[in-house]
Amino acid sequence: MPALGGMYADEMAKCLVNSTDPADRSVLVRWLFAAGASHPEVVAIVSVSASQREELNRTIARLLERLLTESCRTQTQDAAKYEGRASFEAAFQVLGQVAGRELFSHPAVAGSMAEVDKYLDKKKLEGLVDAPKK
Question: What is the pTM of this model?
């Protein structure tokens, strides 16, 4: 787990990761995905209904409340006291990375991403790694 903040943000991040299970991290990934689906570049290919978005917002709110006020209360208070609000961003960035790794390591996702290989021009890529730098 990379250090993104100070010592207290790191402790908060560890607590967040250790206090969530795969189901919790799945909630986080679904919420992040739904939020990202609002971006103008993807709104035409992804559909999240208002009721789905509302339910995800309610679910993530409960998860965040539990993490911040129960599971990681001490670490949250210390991070806020000694490192300020930026420590929250750093700690949750680590949790998001862990959740994202779980999403992208799923065989169905990895398989879908690997499909791009059939469209790559292998001749253009040959020797790229071993090619001398110009």
Answer: 0.79
